[in-house]
Amino acid sequence: MSELADSLFTAVELILSFDREVRLTVWTSLYTSFSAIVFAALFGIPAGLWLGIKHFRGRRVVITLLNTLMALPTVVVGLVLFGLFSRQGPAGSLGLLFTPWAMIIGQMLLATPIVVNLVLSAVAGSDKRIMDTALTLGASHFQASVQLLKEIRFGVMAAVIAGFGRVIAEVGVAMMLGGNIRGLTRTMTTAIALETSKGEFAFALALGIVLLGVALIVNLFLNFLQQR
Amino acid sequence: MQTVISLRDIQVSQGDNFRLSVESLDLYPRQIYALTGPNGAGKSTLLRIMALLALPQQGSVRFAGGASSFAEQRKRVTLVEQSPYLFQGSVADNLAYGLKLRGIDGKEQRRRIELTLSIVGLEDFALRMAKELSGGEIQRVALARALVFKPELLLLDEPTANIDSKSLQAFEALLCRLPKYGVTVLFSTHDLSQSERLGAKLLRIENGRLLNEFPVAPESLPTYKRSCDAGRKP
Question: What is the chain A residue with the closest CA to B88?
Fold first, then answer.
């Protein structure tokens, strides 16, 4: 029990002293996940909007597929991309494996279905008169879609934050594609998993506390947006 | 006389169900038209087709001045729904939307917003948030939002269905003045006396068929209809 208390004390000390190792790992986590969610949003928001507005043959199949992709195991994404980026893989020549870019691409694939699906839900739950109102005031279809996006902006922001929540906490992609390289691809989750097994419990605990803090902030923000 | 809008051989059906048939309909500038008919007769469908929000399976909708792009044509007509939607933000934001789309901003935009709000009796409402308004106020803001960019054709779907009798009088008085500003008005209503009060030309629709068009006999009109006519050019 006292060992746990000691570790907790050391962990808090590491955080409060802005330990370089902790700082570096937190920074890697934040910037890879943030980059991934930016790319996921750039693709996912227009895609969700388009799926929500357009009615075409096969739309239900696409939505069912997206629902399935939302529950995609992170290690499966890691495995597929590992095969793609490994030296013998079709994209091996790009030299992406064990770089932050490989992690960003993997995390983007994890977050995109979430963003698309939640934006689609926001469009489905929006007032059906928005598009027609914009059109009858003289907007083109594109301008009316932009207006719709403005009207459902809190739902869209919630979609992006939910996607961020998914990638910041995942370990499979970061581990398999990043390889936990210190100062380069070591994220909070991979460090927690691997440092614990090396006996660096206090360091892992410090990262765990920071990760929990990030998750708390994300959820508080999400809750705030959902109440708007 | 050139028409504002001409409809020819319009046919609309949904699946096997026949919805609307209009052989020929011409609306002329600076007139008020009333579209009457029972529920489900096709009034809203006709209004949506004239507003270019829905396309008929057959037939043509033409605006005066020959061919222009679909988007340009849509800028000349606007539809105010029975329960209109106001965008989030202030009343001024709502009125600015159509103006921005037409490249009107800055001083001219502010001038038009102020003027239009005063016309609909909402002088101090520019900064009020849309979500704080009552049903009657929403209706008037929606009308102001449509009028602010001076449409050639203003379509109103049962505009007075949800407003009280005091607002009704003000609303009708406002409609009377619109032809003077070059706006042609077509409103749907169940209230025949309203079309009489406004001196509107009557369009009757039944079971999806536009039956006829005829002016209301002047002697059947109540006194203040004449004041409605006073401001109108012959």
Answer: A151
Size of interface A-B (CB pairs under 8 A): 48
* Tens digits of residue pLDDT in B59-114: 999 888 766 787 888 889 999 999 999 999 999 999 999 999 999 999 999 999 99
Summarised one tens digit per residue, pLDDT across range B6-21 is 999 999 987 767 788 9
- Just give the CATH number of A21-226: 1.10.3720.10
Q: Which residue has the tokens 């028409």?
A: B3
Question: Quick one: average pLDDT of B165-170?
Answer: 81
DSSP string, A14-62: HHHTT-HHHHHHHHHHHHHHHHHHHHHHHHHHHHHHHHHH---TTHHHH
Amino acid at the residue B155: L
Q: Which residues from chain A sit within 8 angstroms of residue B53, using beta carbons?
A: 132, 135-136
Residue of B nearest to A139 (CA): B101
How crowded is the C-beta side of B35, counted as CA atoms within 13 Å? 28
Low-confidence residues of chain A: pLDDT under 50: none
**Smallest CA–CA distance from A135 into chain B, residue:** B53
Which one of B101, B104, B186 would you mutate to disrupt binding with A, by most A Cβ within 10 Å of its Cβ?
A: B101
Confidence check: pLDDT of B44 > 80: yes
Contact B113/B96 with Cβ under 8 angstroms?
A: yes
Taking the CA of residue A160 and the nearest CA in chain B, the distance in Å comes to: 21
Q: A190 with A178: CB under 8 angstroms?
A: yes
Identify the residue among A136, A141, A149 best suited for mutation to test binding to B, counting B beta carbons within 10 A and taking the highest: A136
pLDDT tens per residue across span B178-224: 998 889 999 999 888 888 888 898 899 988 888 865 444 444 444 44
**Which pLDDT belongs to residue A161?**
93
Beta bridge partners of B27: B5
The domain ranges of chain A are: 21-226
Q: Using the beta-carbon criterion (under 8 Å), do B85 and A127 form an inter-chain contact?
A: yes
Q: What is the pLDDT of residue B226?
A: 45
Q: Which residues of B touch A143 (CB under 8 A)?
A: 101
Q: What is the ipTM of this complex?
A: 0.88
